[in-house]
Amino acid sequence: MARPLEEFPDPILSVAWGELGAVRHAAKLDDMWHADIALGYPVVGLVDDYRREAATWLGEADVELDLIFKPPQKNALTGVNNVIAVASGKGGVGKSTTAVNLALALADIGAKVGILDADIYGPSLGLMLGVPPNRRPEVRDGKYFVPIRAHGIETISMSMLVDDRTPMVWRGPMASGALQQLLQQTLWSDVDYLIVDMPPGTGDIQLTLSQQVAVSGAVIVTTPQNIALADAVKGIEMFQKVNIPILGVVENMSYFECDECGKRHEIFDNAGGATVARDYSTRLLGEFPLHPMIRTNTDSGRPPVVSEPDSDITERFRKAARLTAASLWESATQQAEAPTIAIDNE
Known about the structure:
Blueprint: H1 17-20, E1 23-29, E2 32-39, H2 47-58, E3 63-69, E4 80-87, H3 95-108, E5 113-117, H4 125-128, E6 138-140, E7 144-146, E8 148-150, E9 153-156, H5 172-184, E10 191-197, H6 204-212, E11 217-222, H7 226-241, E12 246-251, E13 256-257, E14 264-265, H8 272-279, E15 284-287, H9 292-299, H10 304-307, H11 312-336
Helix pairs in contact: 3-11, 5-6
C-alpha cells in the first residue's frame, strides 16, 4: 500500500510534512504523482534532491514536485515578517561574523533579508558589509531611515549614522532608546527575516528587543571553551525567561586544520556547542573552524558567503542558515497548534 505524502519526513526537520502543513495538493495523475509543497524555509537548490527523496518514499519512478518558499508570517515589525536575534553570552566568539554570514546565506538560498546592528556601543556591520564609512542612509519624512543595500541584503547600523571614530558614551536607557529608533523608524521592504546582531551579554538591549518586538527566535553563538559555554547558557536562559524560542547553537573556532599535514587540532576543547544544544533540546546549527578566511574576508567587507561562494565555509553557512529558518518554521507551527484554555465563569 502506497504511503501518503503527508507522512513524508521533511529532509531537514525529520517531521512529517503533514504535521508542518506543507502539502498544499498531492494527487496521482497519469501514473505520476504531482504535488505542490510549501516549505517554511528557502528552497533554492533543493528541488531535484527532494523530488528523488519523495519518489523513493512513495515507491515511484518519478514525482512532479513543485516547491515554494512560504515563511511564517509573524509581522514582527512594519516591513518585517520574522525577527531572528543572533546573540552570545560574551564577546569575542564571532557573533557579528556569524550574523552577517547567516544573513547573506539566507539571501543566497532565496530569502529576502535585512540585518540590524543592535550593538549600539560597538557597531561593526557597516565595516563587515563593505559600506563606505561616510555613507549615510536616506531619510524620509524627516524621521524614517531607508536601509542601505549591501551584497543583496538591507542593513542599518549606528555605524552608518555617526562618525566611525565616535564612541557611544551612553547610559543604558539612551542605548535602549537608540535601538527603539532603529527598530521602529527603519523602512524595511517586506523582508522575510530581519537578523538582529545583538551586543554580547544579557543587558538592557536584550530586554528592550524582547519587550518591543515579537522576536521569532534566537541563535546562540559560542566557542567550545568552558567560559564561553557558561555564558552561552546564561543567554539561553535569558531568552527562555522572555519566551523567545531558541532556534539553535552555532559553535565557532571548533577546530583548526593544519594546511601542511591536514591534522585537525581542537584548540578550545570540543563538542561544547553540541552538549549545550542537547541539554536545552535545541539544534547544533553548525560548527565552524578557526580559519583566517572567515576573519580577513569579513573584516574587509566581503564575507566568505560573498567572496568565496564555492568554499566549504560558505556551504556550512548555507546549511546553518537553512536549518535556522527550518527551526523557526517548526517553532511557529508548534505555537500555532498550541492548545488554548477557555475559562467558564459558570
